[in-house]
Structures are given as structure tokens and as C-alpha cells.
Specification:
homodimer; elongated; 11-stranded mixed beta sheet; Isopropylmalate Dehydrogenase; alpha/beta; 303 residues
Chain lengths: 303, 303
């Protein structure tokens, strides 16, 4: 029996719907995709893409209509992407879907629309009142993020032992028995205090989590610019970065097309493509489906 | 006529001298290396390495003697590494050498020894009273650093238009006619202010430098986790990172063994290996010579 996977369509002015339609045949072999979009919007997108809608395509209708404008920042499109997403989440909660795979939304458009969330993960955290953990990667390496969409200047004050420990506990529950390489915050992981001292908090949190789980599964703080070197990567598959670009710049340098985004520590399974709305190539038949297909596969793997 | 290249030996408790001796024959084909070390210390290192000193090896003697202890943090070794370095710099200033290639020093050991510099680049900046620019990379990509050995919390306040502009002017003088991809500071380069606003300073500095040089050579602010993706790298060879790990984590993920370190904006040519003292493998015949040989080649290329 194939699993039902809700697909939220993302910002319809971006590449999401093109990828979904392009990959439909392949994805249908893996699962039963349920697209969270109404007929009117789907037809409009297909017309823009100059493509036909496959006959067996199943939708779960999401109200709303507006004119799709390829690559345009729009609050209407933002609101629709949010509604499609929450619709998919509800399908999971009601057991009509087993998991949700999300297409990219545009954060700037969400802000324009007055949506108070910084992205999918933030919205899930608030909806479920649980701290969702954002993890990106592919089968070669995964990077979880301790802080996500946080301005860089606001990151150092968040490096505190108790907060780290509570995050480590959640991460360990989501990835039991996995070794985690925990990065330092500062260049050279602070060089023993010469270049910053937040590593003391990280060290203490690592000691405590390892003691509490009775096993040394958390390692670090690792020197950030050494963590992703080929030799170091041989020993670890899971990394914990202290902030967004510390983890994602190396990940995307190495595995851009194939990476996906997973939300851990939630009551539902959610995976996502690891790219944005790519407004510059929307509706130009240029979008790559690999990350989406990997996201579907990962969702199935997690079920 | 082959160029004379001063080689500072770095921290003698680390891997530098092993690499220098191991690569001597190959490096001698490219240039005349002049090793900044005295006979006593060289003999001691060779004994530890269980190797013979090549007959044609030329030294320029640096006073001092202490017992080499593989992998040990030591203020004696720190002081000797500093003296070897400054000796090589003087050889360049006196035209006895055309350039200097430096082996790694240990920053923690320098601090232990009361040496007030954060590393070679910082010492050169203070010695020449010119702001040395640290650039790392290989022929596939180079990353210059706007801030270097700075605790992360101290980076955001340094992102100011006038300071950036003066850095851009120096960088442009060192790399005339080269396109530079300038990274943003925040996740998604701030997402138009949603995730931090330092990108406004970067944008304004870019506008001003391009206007003053009469050509669009500086591009950005680039989204940091997109800058090093394979597609983006096709268009740029030179990147400017706002801080140490933003540039070096992706660089080392991609090109760890072959990368080197170049000091720009100085009266002398200085290149260096792109790794540390690697105390854990010192005197174990495990060190890789590729970065060193590339550093020698780059120094010759810059002459």
C-alpha cells in the first residue's frame, strides 16, 4: 500500500508547481501525492507552463484565487502558499496524509502579507507549540541548525548551556544512537578563549548531554572551518551548526541539488526541497526536480 | 634564474618542518628555498623525523634552541616560530629573498608566549603598518576575508560602509580588473531587512567602489549559502567573505588539501599553507605537502 503524501505548492509565482508537475509521474510511483491547491489555480499554472495536467492527479482543494505572475513578490501568492501549507499540515493531523512535503515559500512575500512566521519551520514550531528542528542534507551528510533565521548579531547571545542542552535532548530523541558533530561558534572554535568564549557553554552542554544519555554521542565543539573537510566528514554524517550559514554554506557548496530540508521534533513528518522560490527561473522550464524527489523519498523513509 | 624564497619553519612542535623537508627536492626545482632555522634545531627536527638533511639545503640562521616536543603547546616553540617568520620577512625587505612562504604557527602558543598578534597576517599588518588582506584558496576559487580572527559577536559592528569601502579599495588594488562576489552578513543576505540590516552598508559600499573605479567589479551582497553553490561558482573566482568561517568552511569543504593563504596589500609577497600546526599528526610522517607546494607556486606566480 502506497503512502499518501500531502504536497503544499509553495509560492505559485515561484518554481514549486513546475517541479511538482514535472516530477508527478516519478513521484506517483513512490507514493500517492495529494496536491494542496484548487482546480482554478492549478489550471492557471499549467497554462503558464504550457503543460497538461495528468489525469490521475489528486488535489485537496485550497480556497483562493489570484493571477499568477512569474517571479513577482505578492502578498496574495504569499497567503495562498501559507494556506496550502497549513492545509497539508491538517491533512496529516487528520490522518488523510501520512506526511507533508513542502514546496518553497518566499519569506519576503510572507512579510509583505503580514504573516508573522520566518518560514515553514517557524510556523510549525508555533502551530504545534513544539520546537521544530530544521535539518538539511542528503544521504551523505545532514546539518541540523541550532539557530535558523536569526540575524547574525543575535546568534552569540543564544549560545547558552541550558538552551543548548534542551536542544541536544530534542535532537537526540529525533536521531537516537546517531553521533553528532557539534560545531563551535567562533573562528578556530575560539582558540581556547582567544577568539571568543561561547565554546565554554557548548562544551558544558555536550558534557551534560553525554552524561545524561550515558554515551558519548555529541562531539565538539568542532572547529567550524575544519568540520566539513573531506577527512572530517568521513567520521560524521550528522552535524549541528550554531547558525544558518555556518552549516548551509558548506552543505550547499557540496550537495546543492540533492539536499532536502527535514523538520524534526514534531508530531508529523515534514520534508521539503532545500531551495527557494527561484523567482528568476520561474515558469521557464529550468527548475531541477532532484531535491523534491529526494524530499519525497526522505519523507517515506521517516514514516 | 630561480627566485630565492624564504621559508619560515612555523611551530617546530607541529608539522611544518616535516613538510618542508619532505618537499625540499620538489620545491628546489621551482626556486631556491632559504630555510629560516639554525643548524641545531634543524638537526634535532631531522633526528625526530628519522630523516637526513639534504646536502644542498640552505639555511639562514635564526638564534634560539629548545627541545622539540611533538604536538606540545610551548612558548619556546612559539617564540622561535615568530623569530623565524620575522627573519624571513627581513630577508624579503633586504632583497635577500624575493618572497616568503610561511609554515603554520600556533595561535594559542603565541598567546602563551605573550605574543600580541593573532597570526601571521596580523603581525604583518602591524609590522608594515598596512592593512594586510588575508585571502585563501586555490586556482579554482579564492576567498578574501573582510574580518579574520575576530570573535563572531564582534563581526556585525564592523560592517560599516566607510570601513568596507576602504577595504574594497585595497582589494581592488591587489586584484585589479577582477570581479569580486561580496557576501552578505546575514542568512539570506538579510532577506531585505527581515533577518538583519547590515546588508544596507554592504550595498552602499559596493555602489561607491564601482562608481569610483568606473566599472561594476564588485557584486553583492550575495546570499551567503548560495555563493558557493556549483552554479554560482561558475561565474566568480574571487569571493569576499564578511567573516572567517563564512568563507573558509565552504572553501575547505571543497578544496582543503590544495588551498593556500596569501597576504595581499603588503610591500612583500607572502604565501602560506592553509592548515594549522596539526599537532595530532606531528612527526608521524602523515602530513600532506600539497598546500605547501601550491603556496610556493603561488608566491612565484605573484612575483
Amino acid at each position: 500500500m502506497k503512502h499518501n503524501i500531502a504536497i503544499s505548492v509553495g509560492d505559485l509565482n515561484g518554481v514549486g508547481i513546475e517541479i511538482a508537475l514535472k516530477a508527478h509521474t516519478e513521484v506517483s510511483k513512490l507514493c500517492n501525492p495529494i496536491y494542496c491547491i484548487n482546480k482554478y489555480m492549478l489550471n492557471q499554472a499549467a497554462t503558464h507552463l504550457n503543460t497538461n495536467i495528468p489525469k490521475n492527479l489528486k488535489i485537496s482543494s485550497v480556497d483562493g484565487n489570484f493571477d499568477i505572475k512569474a517571479g513577482a513578490l505578492s502578498s496574495e501568492s504569499a497567503n495562498y502558499s501559507f494556506d496550502s501549507f497549513m492545509h497539508g499540515v491538517c491533512l496529516c493531523k487528520n490522518k488523510q496524509a501520512d506526511a507533508i512535503v513542502t514546496m518553497p515559500i518566499n519569506k519576503e512575500a510572507w512579510m509583505l502579507a503580514g504573516l508573522e512566521y520566518k518560514g515553514h519551520t517557524d510556523a510549525l514550531t508555533k502551530h504545534f507549540k513544539k520546537d521544530a528542528i530544521m535539518m538539511l542534507g542528503c544521504d551523505k551528510m545532514f546539518v541540523a541548525l541550532y539557530t535558523e533565521h536569526t540575524a547574525l548579531k543575535n546568534v552569540p547571545p543564544l549560545i547558552k548551556k541550558d538552551k543548548l542542552l534542551s536542544f541536544f535532548i530534542d535532537l537526540n530523541k529525533s536521531l537516537p544512537n546517531e553521533k553528532i558533530a557539534v560545531l563551535g561558534l567562533n573562528p578556530h572554535a575560539g582558540d581556547n578563549g582567544v577568539l571568543g568564549d561561547e565554546e565554554i557553554e557548548i562544551t558544558n552542554a555536550i558534557k551534560e548531554i553525554n552524561k545524561s544519555i550515558g554515551e558519548d554521542l555529541f562531539f565538539g565543539p568542532i572547529v567550524p572551518d575544519i568540520a566539513f573537510t573531506p577527512n572530517f566528514r568521513k567520521n560524521y554524517k550528522y552535524f549541528l551548526a550554531m547558525y544558518h550559514d555556518q552549516g548551509l554554506a558548506p552543505l550547499k557548496a557540496l550537495y546543492f541539488d540533492e539536499s532536502i530540508n527535514i523538520s524534526l521534533n514534531l508530531p508529523i513528518v515534514r520534508t521539503s526541497v532545500d531551495h527557494g522560490t527561484a523567482f528568476d527561473i520561474a515558469y521557464k522550464n529550468k527548475a531541477n526536480t532532484l531535491s523534491y524527489i529526494n524530499a519525497v523519498k526522505s519523507a517515506l523513509f521517516l514514516l
